[in-house]
Amino acid sequence: MEDVDHLAHERSKAQFDVEEMKIVWAGSRHAFEVTDRMSRLVASDPIFRKDNRTLLPRKELFKNTLRKAAHAWKRIIELRLTEEEASKLRFFADEPNFTELHWGMFVPFIKGQGTDEQQKKWLPLAYKMQIIGCYAQTELGHGSNVQGLETTATFDPLTDEFVIHSPTLASSKWWPGGLGKVSTHAVVFARLIITDDRDYGVHGFIVQLRSLDDHLPLPGITVGDIGNKFGSGAYNTMDNGLLRFDNVRIPRDQMLMRISQVTREGKYVQSNVPRQLVYGTMVYVRQTIVADASCALARAVCIATRYSAVRRQFGSQNGGVETQVIDYKTQQNRLFPLLASAYAFRFVGEWLKWLYTDVTQRLQAKDFSTLPEAHACTAGLKSLTTTVTADSIEECRKLCGGHGYLSCSGLPELFAVYIPACTYEGDNVVLLLQVARFLMKTVSQLPSGMKPVGTTAYLGRVEDLMQCHSTVKKAEDWLNPSVVLEVFEARATRLSVACAQNLSKFAKQEEGFLELAADLVEAAVAHCQLIVVSKFIEKLQEDIPGKGVKEQLQTLCYVYALNLLHKHLGDFVATGCITPKQASLANDQLRSLYSQVRPNAVALVDSFNYTDHYLSSILGRYDGNVYPKLYEEAWKDPLNESVVPDGYHEYIRPLLKQQLRNARL
Ligand SMILES: CCCCCCCC/C=C\CCC/C=C/C(=O)SCCNC(=O)CCNC(=O)[C@H](O)C(C)(C)COP(=O)(O)OP(=O)(O)OC[C@H]1O[C@@H](n2cnc3c(N)ncnc32)[C@H](O)[C@@H]1OP(=O)(O)O
Ligand SMILES: Cc1cc2nc3c(=O)[nH]c(=O)nc-3n(C[C@H](O)[C@H](O)[C@H](O)COP(=O)(O)OP(=O)(O)OC[C@H]3O[C@@H](n4cnc5c(N)ncnc54)[C@H](O)[C@@H]3O)c2cc1C
Question: Which family does it belong to (predicted)?
Fold first, then answer.
């Protein structure tokens, strides 16, 4: 009972309107209403229970996932849910499965790359789930290097077909989610070869893999699951698959032909659009991964914050209560920047969604000018937010001490499910190198008078930013958005310019890129952190209703920025943007901001509006009733079904008897 009181007391200390903050977090009143309704719907449905997930063997786990996915689909149809509601329902069902790839990559790929006729043919089937699709790009031998893929699609003019073939073991498709056991169809990336034996590079094709009658693989197709992955439960609910083609024939019109076409005569026709549009689905998914990062980070932070308020260690005097661990400055210094990052990623995710919608509209009007920026922003922010989120989930586990290591804390499985986000949809380092390439191109065009726009507009003020020195004289001077922005812009500019100067010393730019890759990655990170800081500051320019809500967000924005400054002090001081004295003032200010966050911490994580079902964590329970529930949970473990364990007679008893005999000797 005592623990329950702790959180009620915490909630009573909040200095802002939590209900209004929930709406800010959700993005709008409508989004809040849908999210809230769908999360409760899932939480109240026993089929979506997930407390036994980590204990099930793979086959049972997978069958259970199929059952949940089928049940989710049944509810979506019965309740006539909108696309938005359906996607929220799947999100809160919280179990990676084939439907993510079907709705998240297969359908968007057809929408983005299919002609009107192709969309008319395939989309209705996909929308009704009469076919199930996946995204088969990566191969055993190549993932990052998409241009290096080996699967071939050779045009046969005699039959008006493509022959899909896996010429080597390394060309086997490897990893696609949903492929292993479920998908009937796949978008397959293969090198297009036309009669003249010319290789036109990688293109997307729709290939049927399994019979729609008995689910058996079609002739020429070898398909299966790639095996168990990291952690128990976790991502093993997904059937990541392998796939080989032995001269499989598909009709010509199953090449997705919006961007380029092969005619009946075998002529290759490239529409007047950049060939990189074939990578468009990856840009779309990277943008959704940024939005997901804030959710996963918020989930871990919610657990760690509530538990830190419940947990007490040391500090009792005269038999009084001990100190809540959340009151230790070290705990605050580790936890509150993560809380601030969750909010920061939420807002940059909202902005990225806007950017993606904007570039999509422009592409429809044949304006390709913002495509490189959209690619750089989605790649860079995907990399930054997933790296921080993965590291932060582990930090939250440590913040919960020993109990964080228990499965029922929810953190081990969250970690295991989340960490592949640093790899899928582009390895995070490979993606940062793309950002660096974009930055180097922008810097190299400055002398010709080219004015950078969008997120690189600050580089247009390169001369000022190379010279400026921060004016901060006292700690409170850091509480000024333009002061903060200026130092982040100056640091990003100076790191990029230094890289560009070093690159110019190489005779061949590609050689320089390889040699300077580590510095280029640091410049890319600085640029991406600047984007996050600036979008948080922009968010604060909006009219944000609700008592104290804006003030809390302001505090979190400064925590986010000043903590980054502290962590990357080397960059800021070495590039001369700030002095060591100013750095120390920033740290003083940060400490004082932690004191402002402290009374609001529990309410700030309540604002995520997560149900106990979604959190699936005894440590993060809303009521804070941690110890009785931990005690109860321990007894549910299969090992505790019998008092004496299986194996006692074979292995423990003989051992004990042996020792007894030895002792007597
Ligand atoms: C229950 C909780 C679960 C939570 C999870 C929820 C989320 C669920 C979502 C997904 C589940 C996982 C699904 C995973 C799917 C996958 O992983 S699919 C496979 C993804 N693969 C990759 O991302 C491969 C990475 N590699 C690449 O993207 C590229 O090849 C590259 C490395 C970026 C480029 O290599 P390269 O230099 O060889 O590139 P080229 O093809 O020669 O092109 C060069 C120029 O093009 C520009 N470019 C590159 N990519 C793009 C793009 N996408 N858009 C626009 N422009 C692009 C590049 O900058 C070069 O431009 P330049 O010539 O001007 O310099
Ligand atoms: C859980 C999961 C789900 C997936 N789902 C799908 C799916 O549905 N469909 C699909 O097609 N694929 C899928 N993938 C594959 C995924 O997209 C690739 O694994 C990813 O793009 C990374 O490529 P890779 O495996 O080739 O890594 P590699 O490129 O081999 O990376 C290995 C190491 O080399 C480094 N490296 C590589 N290139 C460079 C370079 N140029 N410079 C510096 N360092 C470099 C990387 O940083 C990394 O440290 C999935 C992967 C996972 C883990």
Answer: Belongs to the acyl-CoA oxidase family.
141 in any annotated domain: yes
Burial of residue 378, with CB atoms counted within 10 A of its CB: 0-12 exposed, 13-18 middle, 19 or more buried: buried
Q: What are the angstrom distances between the C-alpha of 509 and each of 144, 231, 259, 505, 625?
A: 21, 42, 30, 9, 60
Q: Does residue 445 fall inside a structural domain?
A: no
Please list the residues that pair with 156 across neighbouring strands. 161
Q: What pTM, to 2 d.p., does this model score?
A: 0.97
Q: Is residue 393 part of a domain?
A: no
Ligand 1 cavity residues, CB under 6 Å: 94, 96, 100, 104, 135, 137-138, 143-147, 177, 276, 279, 282-283, 285, 289, 292, 371-372, 375, 417, 424-426, 430, 434, 437
% helix / strand / coil in the chain, to the nearest 5?
Answer: 65, 10, 30
CA angle (229, 231, 237) in 5-degree steps: 60
Per-residue buried b or exposed e for 303-319, using 16+ beta carbons within 10 Å of the residue's own CB: bbbbbbbbbbeeeeeee
Q: Judge whether 620 and 303 are in contact, CB under 8 Å.
A: yes
Q: Is the pLDDT of residue 3 over 70?
A: no
Q: Which ligand is nearest to the CA of 137?
A: 2
Q: Which structural domain range is residue 156 located in?
A: 131-272
Residue closest by Cα to atom 47 of ligand 2: 429
CA-closest residue to ligand 1 atom 41: 147
Number of domains in the chain: 1
Spatial separation of the C-alpha atoms in residues 486 and 86, rounded to whole Å:
43
How far apart, in whole angstroms, are the C-alpha atoms of residue 377 and residue 455?
Answer: 8
Confidence band (pLDDT; 50, 70, 90) for 5? low
* Amino acid type, 157: P
- What ipTM did this prediction achieve? 0.97
Whether the predicted pLDDT of 294 surpasses 50: yes
Tens digit of each residue's pLDDT (9 = 90 or more) over 453-478: 999 999 999 999 999 999 999 999 99
Q: Round to whole Å and give the CA distance between 442 and 451.
A: 9
For residues 584-592, give the mean pLDDT: 98
Q: What are phi and psi of 265, to 5 degrees?
A: -85, 0
428 CA to middle of ligand 2, Å? 9
Q: What is the dihedral angle through the alpha carbons of 576, 580, 585, 589, rounded to the nearest 10 degrees?
A: 70
Paired with 161 in beta bridges are 156, 251
511 is catalytic: no
**Six-digit token pair at 575?**
């590039």
Ligand 1 center from residue 235 Cα (angstroms): 22
C-alpha 636 chain-centroid distance: 32
The pLDDT-based confidence of 55 (bands split at 50, 70, 90) is: confident
So what's the pLDDT on residue 2? Answer: 45
Residue 100 corresponds to which tokens in the numbers above? 């993510």
CB 599 within 8 A of CB 15: yes
Percentage of the chain surpassing pLDDT 70?
Answer: 99
Determine the Cα–Cα distance for residues 516 and 509; give it in Å rounded to an integer: 10
- Domain at 186, CATH number: 2.40.110.10
With 0-12 CB in 10 A as exposed, 13-18 as middle and 19+ as buried, what is 474? exposed
- Tell which atom from ligand 2 comes closest to the C-alpha of 427: 22
The answer to whether residues 493 and 465 touch, using CB atoms and an 8 Å cutoff, is: yes
Q: What letter would DSSP give residue 645? A: P
- For the stretch 172-209, pLDDT in tens is 999 999 999 999 999 999 999 997 789 999 999 999 99
Instruction: Output the pLDDT for position 44.
Output: 97
Residues 6+ apart with CB under 8 A from 423: none
CA of 286 to the centre of ligand 2 (A): 14
Q: Give me the pLDDT at residue 4, please.
A: 54
The answer to whether residue 188 sits within a structural domain is yes
